[in-house]
Amino acid sequence: MHHSSLLRAQSKALHPSSALLLRSKIPLLILGSSTARIRSEVLTPFRSVRMFFYLAFIASGGLGTLIATTQLIAALTNPSRALDAPEIAKGLGIDICAVSLFAFLYYRENTAKNAQIARLSREENLSNLKLRVDEKRVIPVSSLRGFARLVICAGPASFITESFKFSEPFTEGLVERGVLVVPFATDGNSPSFEFDESEESKDFTSKRKRLWQLNPVIVSEWTNWLDEQKKLAGVSSDSPVYISLRLDGRVRGSGIGYPPWNAFVAQLPPVKGMWSGLLDGFDGRV
After folding, report:
1. Is there a contact between 144 and 180 (Cβ–Cβ < 8 Å)?
2. What's the CA gap between 284 and 286, in Å, rounded?
């Protein structure tokens, strides 16, 4: 009750548009968390079963430890039962070892579960970020699942410009593999993209523009997501990075510096043809 009242009071104190934004984000956060948990269950369907049995064994071993402890105290304080003490102590040791083992297994499983849910939650948060395709269309990242492999190129405008130049020799291969670049300038400046507008380069220039057509919308949300990724990876906030996504929207790989355009072309299968769909899960390591 106290938290609900506090939330209402804060909403009233905010500007009307801010209060509306707060109310609209709360269901999204809950939905994102629920979606991440569901995806986690799908990816590791037997984890919950294992964790249930671990808890059951811990409870059983804990009960056995409690009983053995009381029996050992009684044997040590009663000379007539002193001969039973070694056997009781042996059983107590076994119970303690069993509890310790299953507690460790449960802790490891729970840690892996939380890490997986955190990763899936970050991917869901990324899928909700907005991209501008052209002057009239703004879409969420999730709408490109199954159609494009996004490569987020984040850093100063000069870094984006150099990445643009380095990608030129691999343009056709990248387009064939469904790669689309999301240039995100972290210094607030606009990168400079120069295209060859001559008639003989018309087709190639069209592919270049398609490759670099996306632009982030609501920069603050992109910044928050990127800062969280860097913090978890132990990367300094001012380091230029790239993050590549699979066709299904999962993070494939990331690194500091320029995207390895040649590795993308070498490792990723084309999005069209007989191998389309079949090799979607084998998106390489970059």
Report:
1. yes
2. 6
Q: Which among 220, 286, 249, 177 has a CA at the least distance from the CA of 21?
A: 220
* End-to-end alpha carbon distance in the chain: 48
Which residues share a beta bridge with 139? 131
- 169 residue type, one letter: P
Mean pLDDT of the chain: 81
- 43 vs 122: which has the higher pLDDT: 122
Tokens coding 176: 């064939």
pLDDT value at residue 156: 94
The DSSP output letter for 44 is S
Between 28-32, 132-136, 138-142, the lowest mean confidence (pLDDT) is in 28-32
Alpha carbon 267 to chain centroid distance? 22
Which residue in 152, 142, 268, 274 sits closest to 216, CA to CA? 152
Report residue 200's pLDDT band, with 50, 70 and 90 as the boundaries: confident
Report the predicted TM-score, pTM, of the whole model to 2 decimal places: 0.66
Q: Distance between CA atoms of 227 and 238, rounded to whole angstroms?
A: 9
| SS3 per residue for 233-250 | HCCCCCCCEEEEECCCCC
Taken in order 197, 200, 202, 205, the sign of the CA dihedral is negative
- pLDDT-wise least confident of 115-119, 206-210, 217-221: 115-119
Sign of the alpha-carbon dihedral angle for 275, 277, 280, 281: negative
> CA–CA separation, 39 vs 156, rounded Å?
35
d(CA 57, CA 64): 10
Tokens of 231: 């913090």
Query: What is the distance of C-alpha 277 from the center of its chain?
Result: 22
Query: Taking a C-beta distance cutoff of 8 angstroms, is the pair 129, 143 a contact?
Result: no
The one-letter amino acid at 11: S
